[in-house]
Design a protein that fits this description.
single chain; mainly beta; Immunoglobulin-like; Maltoporin, Chain A; 5-stranded mixed beta sheet; 6 helices; about 5% helix
Length: about 725
């Protein structure tokens, strides 16, 4: 590995490719008038600029080869062009007016195309848009994406659910590397703060071809904020107030770039008291989170690299019922104390018609859980000793993960683009606490893949294959899991306005440490879990069909899926008890999930400022014995009316009203209870103002405005009959420097 990296650096340093430039003008297709302040961006190079008042742009110091240029501006359809450098051509780029939102390049799939050109269906949302619509944090925000929900423990802990699958069946990527932080349990949150994250992408369905084990159910891909454009700098400060929890969210950041060097940093502090329902506060759902992100990059001729670091520290209360009623923000016992360190590097070497990408990562997850001790207090000395004992974590685990991802984009052969890759991971889990949830272990992964995109006149085809090997060393035992997976997809334009996508893919997931080797009480779930060392890998085959109709003023989509999972792993009660806790065993059975998402977006002419949006999502999950799978989200219907406007005194103005209807969930596992349906009303408005020659963004939104008492089927507090959050008003202010 070290020899390979040194060779690549030598290639970069000794590269003799000439520095190229590109000039052009961005125009309105109808009037041929210039478009000022359009974004002109090379996605693979991560290098861009903005057109001037005459619509003109200039990009310099570009490496030779074929690169994708993306041009976008609000009110126009985003355009993607493949540019071969060097070129002496002057580009006149005409954009079509459109009321549809700007598109971005999809990063989570290997060929980095706009979604409309992508063979796989990928959902993408900007974090700023999710926040503007009332989302408090990342786990809450992703539930606005059709087909995505969250298993929650109050506001502080949330786990993504994609089409009914969660935990180790959904892989999370951040800073370009896979996130590893004890994600096997639903009581463990993401460990990621949305400050410094630009957008989120969701692959719904098996992505083992691209990412290996644990992507059996899908991928949540978090794109970090971009560096500043060359020869520019910017900063911002923001604050949010959350009325329900008397909480606040603050962050500040700054970034600057020269022609070759760039850097950024961002810090965030969040504190919340217990969340309130209509009748009571839910004791110990309070939490405090501190987050810091930094990055630096360098680009010269045919070589670019960047280093990023993120430290996230969270102190999260573990609720055990309704008790003390207060606005105190300091968690009570029991609580989690978690620190995540994420180091990543991403480098690219550009050859004439090919590219080598190398991503390296190291994640250090430090997890502690503190519990209340139960001793008889006899004297002050004993009390003092007990206080000292409380400082010792009952559960203390350290998870250290090093991973690598190397991909080579081969020279394009006619209409065929091909990528070959090598991915791997080395991981150690160590215990230091009195309690043992999962044992000490070492995991080693290695996978090789090849995938191609073929562009025909009337269709695009993508196909690929991959082989993986995972080795787990658990105390004196060693387990090996191998898997061969493939995927094939086709996208075709049935008409100019109607696009169809069909994707077939297999996936796999090796059993995790908890499933293989648990033998003890899991305090977060109040059950005694017994692992099964003889478990085999889960394997699935999923069929996805997506239809999209898009005209100037109407968009309609229908996505259907059918997912067959062999040897699905789940917990089943044995009927016995240990130390008063029910014993649950990990067993396997085949399972099937099916359903989809359907919706439309209407922006009627000539009222392009008015938007009607609606989407419906459903998923049904069953075991082979016809029993329903647990923790399957209820069917949900979202209806939104949104207004967009600009005046002399306000820019980027918007207002919305939304009704989220969640239906009764009575298709439940034998060890669950049915959950009633509910309706939640939300509304908000915001915009941008000019203050002291700088931009001030203000947003005000309210969720659950009717203060409805309800319980979400995916709430981990549901067994105790505890309601979800009541009415909340969120006020946000961002000032750009």
């Amino acid at each position: 590995m070290k020899l390979l990296i040194n060779t690549l650096l030598l290639l970069a340093v000794t590269s003799i490719y000439a520095q190229n430039s590109l000039t052009g003008t961005v125009l309105d297709e109808n009037s041929n008038s210039p478009l000022a302040y359009a974004n002109v961006y090379f996605s693979q190079l991560e290098k861009g600029t903005i057109s001037n008042e005459k619509g003109q742009f200039l990009l310099e110091n570009l490496p030779s080869g074929m690169h994708t240029l993306v041009i976008s501006i609000i009110g126009y359809e985003t355009k993607s062009l493949v540019i071969t450098l060097p070129t002496l051509d002057y580009l006149d780029i005409a954009l079509s007016p459109s009321a549809i939102e700007m598109e971005d390049i999809i990063i989570s799939t290997p060929f980095h195309k706009l979604q409309r050109d992508n063979v796989m269906k990928v959902e993408q949302q900007r974090i700023s848009d999710l926040k503007a619509h009332g989302s408090i944090n990342l786990a809450d925000g992703i539930t606005n994406i059709a087909g995505v929900e969250s298993i929650t423990t109050g506001l502080g802990i949330g786990k993504p659910v994609i089409r009914g699958l969660s935990s180790n069946r959904v892989l999370v990527y951040t800073q370009g590397i896979r996130l590893e932080n004890q994600q096997f349990g639903s009581e463990h949150g993401l460990g990621i703060n949305d400050a410094g994250i630009e957008s989120v992408e969701v692959i719904k369905g098996p992505a083992s071809l691209l990412y290996g084990s644990d992507a059996l159910g899908g991928v949540l891909y978090l794109n970090p904020e971009r560096f500043a454009q060359a020869h520019s700098n910017s900063g911002d400060v923001s604050a949010n107030y959350v009325s329900n929890t008397s909480g606040y969210i603050t962050n500040a950041g700054y970034k600057a770039s020269s022609e070759h060097f760039k850097f950024l940093f961002r810090g965030s502090l969040t504190e919340h008291a217990d969340y309130e329902t209509k009748n009571y506060s839910v004791t110990n759902t309070r939490f405090r989170e501190q987050d810091f992100k930094a990055g630096m990059g360098y680009q010269y001729k045919a070589f670019k690299t960047e280093l990023r670091y993120n430290i996230n520290h969270a102190k999260l209360g573990i609720p055990e019922g309704v008790g003390e009623q207060s606005n105190n923000r300091s968690p009570l016992l029991p609580y989690q104390d978690i620190t995540n360190h994420i180091f990543s590097s991403k480098s690219s070497v550009f050859f004439n018609n090919s590219r080598l990408d190398i991503s390296l990562g190291y994640i250090y997850n430090d997890r502690k859980e503190f519990e209340e001790l139960h001793h008889e207090d006899e004297n002050e000395e004993e009390d003092h000793e007990e206080e000292d004992e409380i400082l010792e974590a009952a559960l203390y685990m350290k998870l250290k993960t090093a991973n690598y991802d190397i991909k080579y984009n081969l020279p394009k052969l006619g209409k065929v683009e091909t990528i070959v890759g090598l991915q791997g991971m080395h991981q150690t889990n160590s215990n230091y606490g009195e309690e043992l949830l999962i044992p000490d272990a070492t995991t080693n992964d290695i996978g090789v893949l090849a995938t191609s995109h073929i562009h025909f006149e009337k269709a695009d085809v993508q196909l690929g294959a991959r082989f993986d090997n995972r080795t787990l060393s658990i105390e004196s035992q060693e387990k090996q899991f191998n898997s061969f997976n493939g995927a094939m997809g086709v996208k075709t334009n049935i008409t100019n306005a109607l696009v169809a996508r069909l994707n077939l893919a297999t996936g796999f997931r090796a059993p995790n440490l908890s499933e293989l080797a648990s033998d003890g009480t899991h305090e977060g779930t109040n059950r005694y879990e017994v692992g099964n060392i003889d478990l085999i890998s889960e394997r699935n085959f999923q069929t996805d069909l997506a239809l999209e109709f898009q005209s100037e003023h109407l968009e309609v989509f229908a996505n259907g899926f059918y997912n067959i999972i062999n040897d699905y792993i789940f917990l089943s009660p044995s009927g016995s008890f240990i130390d008063g806790d029910p014993v649950f065993n990990y067993i396997q059975d085949d399972a099937t999930l099916y359903g989809g998402e359907f919706g439309f977006h209407l922006h009627p002419h000539p009222l392009d400022w008015l938007h009607f949006e609606s989407n419906f999502e459903m998923v049904i999950g069953k075991q082979n014995n016809r029993d329903y799978l647990p923790l399957i989200p209820a069917n949900t219907l979202n209806n939104t009316i949104r207004l967009e406007f600009e005046k002399s005194w306000i820019k980027k103005g918007y207002a919305f009203i939304k009704l989220r209807s969640t239906f009764k969930q009575n298709k439940v596992n034998a060890f669950e209870t049915a959950t009633d349906g509910f309706n939640l009303l939300s509304a908000g408005f915001g915009g941008s103002f000019k203050i002291l020659d700088n931009e001030l963004l203000i947003s005000i939104s309210g969720t659950n405005l009717s203060n409805k008492r309800y319980i979400n089927h995916l709430s981990r507090l549901k067994p105790d009959g505890i309601f979800n959050m009541g009415r909340n008003i969120n006020v946000g202010v961002t000032y750009k420097l």
